Amino acid sequence: MLVMGILNVTPDSFADGGLHLDPAVAIARGLEMIQEGADIIDIGGESTRPGAERVSAEEEQSRVLPVIQGLAGKGAALSIDTMRASTAILAVESGATIVNDVSGGAADPEMFKTIAELGCRYVIMHWRGHSIDMNSKAVYDDVVTEVMAEMDIQLQKALAAGVKSEKIILDPGIGFAKDAEHNWKLLDHLDQFTALGFPILIGHSRKRFLGGDSPDQREDATVEVTKSLVGKSIWAVRVHGVKPNVEVIRS
After folding, report:
1. Which H or E run contains 237?
2. Cα–Cα dist 38/74, whole Å
3. How confident is the model at residue 164 (pLDDT cuts 50, 70, 90)?
4. Computed from CA positions of residues 53, 71, 112, 160, in that sequence, does the dihedral angle turn out positive or negative?
5. Which one of 54, 238, 243, 250 is the catalytic residue?
6. pLDDT of 248 over the 90 cut
7. Is residue 207 flagged as an active site residue?
8. pLDDT for 12 beyond 80
9. How many other β-carbons are positioned within 10 Å of the β-carbon of residue 204?
C-alpha cells in the first residue's frame, strides 16, 4: 500500500491551511515527506473542506505550479489535486503525473477529454457537489450501493471520453457528502470497491468522523485506520502525517 502525502498550498484547508502557502515552505515540506517515505505528493491549491468557497483558476494555479516545478524530479511522483482541466494541463506540463479530481469529472465538462489527451493517471472520487453545500447532500438509503453506482456513472463517462482503464484510480470519497456512519460503513465494505478491479485510494486523514476536537487530535485515529487497511488490497492512503502512516504500513 502506497502513501500519498497531502501538501495543501492554501490558506484555509481544514488540517494544514496556511502552513505551506509560501512556495519555498511548501517545497521544503514536500522534500521532507519524500524523506519520510511518501510515494506520492498530492499538491492542492483549492480547499475542499466542508463550507469552503472556490478560488479562481488563476489563484489556484499561482499557488501550485511553483511547488510542482520545485519538486519535479526529486524522487516522488507528483499528483495535482484539482477539479479544473486547465489546472490539470499546466500541472502535468510542470511535472505532475496524476490528476486527483475530487469531483470525479463532474465539476468541469472538459476534464475527461483533457485526461484522455494528457494520458496521465486519474483519480475519480465519489462527489455530490461543491464544498459549500456538500454536507446537506449526505443522504443515502444504502451508502455503499449508491456510492458505487454514482461513481460508476463517472467512470463510464471517462472511459467513453477515451481515458484508458489502466490509468484510472477510484476513491469512495470519505468525508465528502457523508456523515460519520456513512464513512465507517464504506470503510467496512471496501472489498466491494477493490472487487471492481481498479486501484483504490482512501483519504481518511484527520477527518471529523474520527473524533477529537481538532484535526491534530485525529492523527492517532488516522494511523489506526491506515493500519486496518493493510492487507485489504488498497492501492494508497492519502494522509497529512506521512511518517507514522509509513511506519504502520511497513512495520
Report:
1. strand 236-239
2. 12
3. very high
4. negative
5. 238
6. yes
7. yes
8. no
9. 22
Is residue 13 over pLDDT 60? no
C-alpha cell at 101: 479530481
Per the residue annotation, which of 29, 178, 207, 218 is the catalytic one? 207
Spatial CA neighbour of 239 closest among 202, 216, 205: 205
Q: How many whole angstroms separate alpha carbon 105 and alpha carbon 190?
A: 22
Whole-number Cα distances in Å, 155 to 148, 170, 191: 10, 9, 18
Q: How far apart are CA 4 and CA 22, in angstroms?
A: 21
Query: CB-based contacts of 238: which residues, under 8 Å, 6+ apart?
Result: 4, 6, 42, 100, 201, 202, 203, 205
pTM over 0.85: yes
Active site residue 178: no
- Give CA–CA dist 69/43, Å, rounded: 11
Smallest Cα–Cα separation from 167: which of 71, 242, 235?
A: 235
**CB under 8 Å to 37, separation ≥6 — which residues?**
3, 242, 243, 246, 250
Burial 117-153 (b: 16+ CB within 10 A, else e): ebebbbbbbbbbebbeebeeebebeebbeebbebbee
